[in-house]
Amino acid sequence: MDLSFTDEDHAFRREVREWLCANIPTTERSTDPADARRWDMAWQRKQFEGGFGGIAWPTEYGGQGLTLVRQLIWFEEYAKAGGPDIGCAFVGINHGGPTLIARGSQEQKRRHLPQILAGEEVWCQGFSEPGAGSDLAGIATKGRVVGDELVVNGQKIWTSFAHMADFQELLVRTDPDSRRHHGLTWTICDMHSPGITVRPIASMDGLEEFCGVFYDDVRIPLDNVVGTIGGGWSVAMSTLGFERGTGFMKLQTELSVVLEELIARATDLGGLADPSVAVQLGDLRADVLALRAMTYAMVSSAARADVPGPLGSMIKVFYADLAQRIHRAQMDIVDVQGLDRGGPFAAEIRHYLYSYASTIGGGTSEVQRDIIGERVLGLPRNR
Prior knowledge:
The chain is of the alpha+beta class. The chain contains eleven helices and eight strands.
């Protein structure tokens, strides 16, 4: 790993810290989808106008053209300042946009990247299906080439923010005779196209951010294909590399803040008088420091490659398990007060319930371990 902070990096950190202190929103995000979208986009726009939108994105598309080290500094200071969740901007900012940067045409980059950064476009991901969630190569949603269009029929599920989105990174099977990862195509789908039906799905945390999406003869211009017809698996792997790697940097840095707040709360509630609690929190702190070291190693590696490698899967597995353990420890310390969803610990309860999704979203931990075994350890494929 080769990662160090220069004097200029330290100056950038001070600038970020001061800007966040002066600009972090003081209003609460609504749970109403339309209001939540406006809130998320307004915050994204403010970051963009402040010079902190797309820190590591190319300047020709509205980014700052800075290093991933600067992006890491932003996330670290953002977490310390208690910055809000990115909300419906997540897909566009963290893996839809980066995929277009790495694999999109010049016209696709020009059309979408500035709008994503400026808080003018919301994206969602159309990968998982009822019969192909963890097994992405098994997708069945069809895209038939008719003239200069793809005609799409099928269904996607667990699509975060589909009911708020303008565009979707959509993976379809364009060769009906193909199997597994062959014959797939990655395309940009306009979510306002005729034939699209979106149905929100309520999750156990009480929110409706996930959706089922249904396609009935949805027509997509072939100009929206990223890469080539039939070459979608390679593009999708780029997308997942960003989603599991650099796209998770903010969440990784946030965990350390969550844990330190938990330790402070345990101290106030007298929980540290129990030696077993003290040991548990000490172990969690050690694991948070390990996660930080892994994140730094990933940033160092990603700085030398266009797309994050399999190290992203290692971080994804470790992060998902650690997030669940930290939020479970939080519920243990809150004790019976954690039964009241409308009480003073409502946010903590919601985060605990949502943490169950961390070992599923972006590819299950079982799939990540297969990737690590094959691509990092060189073990035979798990067939």
